[in-house]
Amino acid sequence: MSDTLVVVVTYVVVYGSTLGYAAYLHVRRKRAEQ
Amino acid sequence: MKRVQITLLVAALALAVGGYLAFTAPLDVLQGEYTRMLYIHAATLWLAFLAFAVTALGSIMYLIGKKSHWDRAAEASAEIGILFAVVGVFAGMVWGQAVWGQAWDWGDARLATTAVMIFVYIGYLALRRAIADPETRARRSAILGTIAVVQVPLVYFSVNLFRTLHQTQSIRPDGSTMNSEMVVALLVNVAAFTLLYAGLFMGRTYIARLEAAKAADTTLAGDAVSPPRLTEIEDV
Q: Which end of chain B is less congested by CB atoms within 10 angstroms, N or C?
């Protein structure tokens, strides 16, 4: 795998993890508001 | 909730700018493309330090005033801090594999102290889930949250206190060892991740408030229908 691809994949994992956490909070909020 | 959504939207725009600067900033001669790891690795771990400091602040304020909102703030910040610490360490491991030839070394003080810090804060969340009574939970976790923060300066200064594989700080009070464009890219990414932290923190504390109110309602309903104790019946 090229160096650039490794760096891009790492960025995607980091941004994706925070996005995933934000999505988890969204679902949890919806449940708490019911 | 509107405030949370606006903050997260601004954070997303700031992260896009940060990502652009990270991929256009000059590269280090030796590290090449892997220089770009700096901008997410340093920014996310800085946020983990900030988040754990907020946990300590919330814990201390709870112990002083016994106000439950400080307890909720401490919990929310610890949860987000763990997220940032884990993704920051992941980025660091990929970077380490490329430039050191190994992703992890338990003999390295910075890496070992960071791992211990993450485990302690996972333990902090586990402790919270192990205690049912809200006041006991808040008091005990506040004590742990106050003590656990000593690890933050220990992790930060470990590169100065011990001989480590990890490099020392690139930005210090007496100046920076980096190119100015790299410093700008790093600072923009730190600001963007700080905004992201603020949005997630506000959202998480809002949920904790809703859940606490719901739990209080459930307890009241439970008390109303709970059977009388046998001793009370005997007394009558």
A: C
DSSP state for residue B169 in the 8-state scheme: -
Please give the pLDDT value at position B228.
Answer: 55
pLDDT score for B124: 97
Cα Rg, chain B, nearest whole Å: 22
- Residues of B within 8 A of A3 (CB-CB) are 32-34, 98
Domain boundaries defined on chain B: 2-165+177-217
B203 vs A29: CB contact, 8 Å cut-off? Answer: yes
Domain count along chain A: 1
Can you give the pLDDT at residue B28? 86
Is B80 in contact with A6 (Cβ distance < 8 A)? no
Among the residues of B168-229, which ranges form H helices? 180-225
Please report residues of A whose CB lies closer than 8 A to that of B98: 3, 6
The pTM (predicted TM-score) of the whole model is 0.88
Nearest CA in chain B to A3: B33
A17/B98 CB distance under 8 A: no
- Residue B224 confidence (pLDDT): 52
Sign of the alpha-carbon torsion through B115, B112, B95, B13: positive
Rounded to a whole number of angstroms, the CA Rg of chain A reads 15
Residues of chain B with pLDDT under 70: 171-176, 219-236
User: How confident is the prediction along chain A (34 residues), in pLDDT tens digits per residue?
Assistant: 689 999 999 999 999 999 999 999 999 999 998 8
ipTM for the whole predicted complex goes beyond 0.90: yes
Verify whether the Cβ–Cβ distance B203 to A3 is below 8 Å. Answer: no
From residue B236, alpha-carbon distances to B6, B226, B228, B229 in Å are 60, 18, 12, 11
Full residue range of the structural domain in which residue A28 is found? 1-34
Domain B2-165+177-217 of CATH type 1.10.10: no
